[in-house]
Amino acid sequence: HITQCPWCIEAHVARATKAGAPDQEIGEVIFVAMAMAAGAAWSHGGLALQCLEEHQA
Q1: Which of 17, 28, 40, 55 is least surrounded, with the fewest CB atoms within 10 Å of its CB?
Q2: What's the pLDDT tens digit per position in 11-24?
Q3: 0.90 exceeded by the pTM?
Q4: Shortest CA distance to 30 belongs to which of 57, 12, 47?
Q5: Residues 56, 46: Cα–Cα separation, whole Å
Q6: What angle do CA 10, 20, 5 make, to 5 degrees?
């Protein structure tokens, strides 16, 4: 997957541009990926806080 991998991001953007994808479409995909990553971070952050509470008890 391309998130958190600068080389993968560069390769996929280059391929999308070469294939004729407009900037707006590439931007939309970027924002979807960002939103999906934020969702995972939110849920994992909640789990980490829950674990912290359990270990403090």
Answers
A1: 55
A2: 889 999 999 999 99
A3: no
A4: 12
A5: 15
A6: 15
